[in-house]
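Lab notes, practical 5.
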Amino acid sequence: MKWTKFRIKTVTDAEDIIISSLYEIGLEGAQIEDKVPLTALEKEQMFVDILPEGPEDDGIAYLSFFVEQKEDGSLEINGMPTDSDTVVKRIEEELAELRFFMEIGEGSVTVSETEDIDWINNWKQYFHQFYIDDLLVIPSWEEVREEDRGKKILHIDPGTAFGTGMHETTQLCIRQIRKYLTPETELLDVGTGSGILAILALMYGAKRATGTDLDPCAVEAVAQNMEANGITQESFRMMIGNIITEKSVQDEVGYECYDIVAANILADVLIPLTPVIVNQMKRGGIYITSGIIDTKEQVVREAVEAAGLEILEVTYQGEWVSVTARKPE
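Output from the prediction step:
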């Protein structure tokens, strides 16, 4: 098996937003090369007592995305045939748009070919158990330590679907869900990915949850994570489809039946989603958004208010923003 590698030269401050933007066009699982020093938490997760000093951070970063080649050497993204030139053009278009509101550095794109490597599973060596406040998040391939037994534990295996809980956007959503959750909560998670938000809501006492996603890979990931956390089929239903544009999905999800709607998606998706999703919310329902880079906070605020929702609070972590709002009674 061979892979086509797309490598982007950028700056460290733009890593997250470029990865998020390219995820929307079907490029996933970025490999990051930079000289940013490891945090104390990252050092702990590497289980190494003393690390050698690395080179001085120069602010430069390289992001690599890998697309599997078919037997005839052709490429496919999101189930659609494509080629290297087309992918490069899409990447360059996304980078050009980002330049309007942030510094991305050189922004050059190079293409190369690499031999068979288990890209699907090799990332697991870098994902270890960690805490979100008092919640322990642990991957399926690690054991719970004796001192952690009895604590609230979320078992998560994202598989090929996005969502481990390590990213700031997910943590912002988790904290807001826990804040507004009640035993009667019916929750809708738009862009559920690995199912982490819906599963966590059920673990903390929500009545039922529904998840939607565009990626068919999410179905298997959600099923595995439900089983790992003892979540029943009756309490969590999952469906694939675009709730923004497909009325059949909107109908199946249901109208005015959710106490909380969570959407950890990019700002450019939240803007068209918001005026649609208000129809799924109960009166007085809570809308929790995340995935918003700080430079796009204002446009999301405007979209939320234009949909007739009242902004309750805006929370921040790193360069990411979460907007929480309420539908009028």
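Observations recorded by the TA: The two ends are 56 Å apart (CA to CA). The CA atoms of residues 28 and 241 lie 19 Å apart.
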